[in-house]
Structures are given as C-alpha cells and as structure tokens.
Design a protein that fits this description.
The chain has 310 residues and is an alpha+beta fold. The strands form four sheets. The chain has a five-stranded antiparallel beta sheet with strand order 11-10-9-12-13. Strands 2-1-3-4 form a four-stranded parallel beta sheet, sandwiched between helices. Helices cover 36% and strands 27% of the residues. The protein is built from ten helices and 15 strands. α1 crosses α10 and α3 runs antiparallel to α4.
C-alpha cells in the first residue's frame, strides 16, 4: 500500500536547493527523505511500501529520465514526469513542441551534419546561435557572429567528433535582447516568482555571472507560462523568456525541468521550496481523500500515475 505522506527526493547530491526542499516538505508534515541512485533498486523491487510521490532532482539529465521512468513503471508518481523531463532536457524537442503548440519561440532548426550547420546558419544570416540539444548553464552555446566563427566551430567540433556522433544540434535565430532575460519559476500551474538575469554578456546565465533582480509577473508572463503548462502539464519548471528588442515580443526561450533556486531565493526573498512543498502536500491530500487530482490518471491496476507532470 502506498504511504500517503512519504515523499522521496531523488538526488545526485544534497545541494542547498535540495536541503531547502527536504526542510519545507517536512514542515508540511510529509515524511521526506533523499533517494540516491543505489537506493533505487530497493524501491522498484517493492521491498517497502511505495512512496506517495518522488520529486526528481538528479543533476544528470540521463539519470533524471532513467529514475523517473523506473519509478513510474513501479507505480510511483513522479514530479516531473519522465516524458516531460525528456522534452525539457532536449532543446530540439522543445522547439518542436512549442511550434506545434503555437508558443512564441525563436525560429529554430535541427542540424544533423556539419554541412547542415553551415547551410542553416547561412539561411538564418549572421549572427545566429548554435546549441547542443542537451546542456545547462550556457555550456556549448555559440554565437555565430561571422564566417570565421562558423569555421572555428566546425573545425573544433570535427576534431573532437569527426564521425558526427554528437549530432543533432539546433541552429537558432539570434534574438537581440535588452541586456537581460527572464527566469520564471512555475509550481503546478502558477508562476511564483520572476527574475531578470542581467549581464553585459549575450548569455545571461547566473552561472556565467548574471545579476539577479526580481521583477513583476505581468499578464503577458502569466499567459506564456500558461501556454507552457498547457503543453507540458502541471509541474515544477524554470521558464526562460526573452524580449526581442526588434519587435518588442516576449518569447519562450526554453524550459528547465530541474530549476535551481537556492541562490536566487536568497536575493529575491520568495520561498520557492515552500511553494513547491505546499503544492505537493495539497496534491497528496486530495489524492488521499479520493478527490480528483489535476495531472493524475489511473493505470490498469488502479494506481494513480502522472498523466502530465505530477
């Protein structure tokens, strides 16, 4: 029988973010404990009662997908769901989803060879941006400012990957932004805080030194986040938005299914861990009382599984 108040926090290591989450979950009266990779075997083997939910916070994209898939197949609800994590961990899949869902997004194309990178950059014009489909913190993201940049990227990449095994990549139109982008943290369906990430560099990642400033959650931001949740399902997301200075339009750049928040929370003052813990406690309470739980469906054995992101 599922323990209605047990929550597993799947981690690679306990960073400040996960320590805040454990404290917040326990403050909600939940029995929260960390789950390391080597602990997973006991859980999926069913040697103890399955937890009510597993919150996936593994640093490795591959591990996050693997853990959530195995837990889901063992009948455990995960947040976020494996298919959602897979989409969020692949910039190419996100671009396809955004296009199909009518979500404003920079024009993005897949490239499966060095020649396709060259031809797609040429079609977009300079500058353009080349990104690995998977990666965080701005790693591997390259601005193709001129022909020499394209030659240098291709030459460097071919020397390390002559067989092209690291393809595909995505080629994206360059968006001239006003010195910052936006990160919006979404819990369930609700944007709980928005921050500007300000930098003189064209990449505005906090890991690259961007300054954090809290900003208002406008109706336009709410609308875009709502579109993202409609496409992915309720969950825990970091939605990255960028303003196009040329058109004034706000675009969804990408969505992170494992957003970091500890450092920024210390600056903007919003208790992100508390919001997420309260959301989880509410969902589990509704499930336990047999009320409909948004984002959940039943499998053939009657167990409730995530149909969206939780």
């Amino acid at each position: 029988m599922t323990s209605p108040d047990q929550v597993l926090l799947s981690v690679t290591m306990l960073r400040p973010d996960e320590k805040l989450l454990l404290t917040a979950l326990r403050a909600e009266g939940l029995k929260a404990q960390p789950l390391l990779m080597e602990d997973l075997a006991e859980v999926v083997a069913g040697h103890s009662g399955p937890p009510a939910l597993a919150l996936i916070r593994n640093l490795s994209h591959r591990d996050a997908i693997s853990v959530s898939r195995r837990l889901e197949h063992a009948g455990v609800t995960t947040l976020n769901r494996a298919s959602t994590i897979e989409t969020c961990n692949d910039k190419g899949l996100q671009a396809l989803l955004f296009a199909r869902s009518g979500i404003p997004h920079p024009v993005t194309r897949h490239a499966f060879s060095y020649d396709q990178v060259r031809s797609t950059v040429a079609a977009f014009g300079l500058p353009s941006v080349v990104k690995p489909v998977s990666g965080s913190w701005g790693r591997g993201v390259t601005k193709m400012a001129n022909a020499e940049c394209v030659d240098a990227w291709v030459g460097g990449r071919e020397s390390a990957d002559a067989g092209g095994k690291l393809f595909p990549v995505v080629v994206q139109e360059y968006i001239d932004k006003p010195g910052h982008d936006l990160r919006v943290v979404v819990v369930g369906r609700t944007p709980v805080v928005a921050i500007q990430r300000v930098s003189d560099d064209w990449r505005t990642n906090t890991h690259l030194g961007a300054e954090v400033r809290r900003t208002e959650i406008t109706p336009e931001i709410e609308k875009l986040c709502g579109q993202v949740v409609d496409a992915l399902g309720p969950g825990f997301y970091g939605v990255d938005l960028v303003e196009d200075l040329t058109t004034g339009e706000l675009l969804v750049l990408e969505v992170n299914a494992n957003p970091e928040f500890a450092r920024s929370s210390a600056l903007h003052g919003v208790n992100v861990a508390g919001h997420l813990a309260a959301y989880i406690a509410q969902q589990l309470s509704e499930e336990h009382s047999q009320s409909p739980v948004p984002g959940l469906s039943e499998n053939r054995s009657g167990q409730q599984l995530a149909a969206s992101a939780v």
